[in-house]
Design a protein that fits this description.
This protein is mostly helical and about 160 residues long. The chain contains seven helices and no strands. Helix content is about 70%, strand content about 0%. Helix 1 crosses helix 2, helix 3 packs across helix 6 and helix 5 packs across helix 7.
């Protein structure tokens, strides 16, 4: 039940961090193995989704550090979420956003990925990343500002 209920969320966060499908699948699998191993400690009245996404985030970050694949972080970003079919304008905008996101420094990209693809709030992101909520808020704000500049290419707009 745990796997069926949360596999998409876990894989989405892993993909958002690792940017490589095979690595993300490995991280997601490792996440569920860790979760099953420690399920006896879980309070099922609590935030199960947040608990799993915290494991997924830390597992993915550890994988990045272990493998030192910094050059591969940007590869596969387009696989995070497929653009909506049938609307060329939305597909083009989505592509620009994913490309801009790929260029962001990890300290800005991780909170944005956890908020956008993981659907987490500032408190949950702060807990996962081990930083203050205010830091999460400022990094998301700054990340969006950098992303906006990157996508708009220095042009003014909404």
């Amino acid at each position: 039940m745990l796997y069926r209920g949360y596999k998409r969320d876990v894989l989405g966060v892993c993909l958002g961090i690792l940017r490589h499908e095979a690595d993300a699948a490995d991280a997601a699998q490792e996440t569920f193995l860790k979760a099953f191993k420690h399920a006896h400690k879980l309070d099922f009245q609590g935030n199960v989704r947040g608990w799993l996404l915290k494991i997924a985030t830390r597992t993915s970050i550890d994988m990045l550090r272990r493998r030192r694949r910094w050059q591969r972080l940007l590869v596969g970003l387009r696989r995070i979420s497929p653009p909506r079919r049938g609307d060329p304008e939305r597909e083009w905008q989505g592509e620009l956003i994913r490309e801009g996101l790929a260029k962001l420094d990890e300290r800005y990209r991780l909170p944005l990925v956890l908020q956008s693809y993981g659907g987490l709030n500032y408190r949950e992101i702060a807990e996962i990343l081990g930083i203050a909520e205010g830091t999460v808020a400022s990094r998301i704000s700054r990340g969006k500002e950098i992303l906006r500049r990157e996508v708009l290419g220095g042009r003014e707009g909404d």
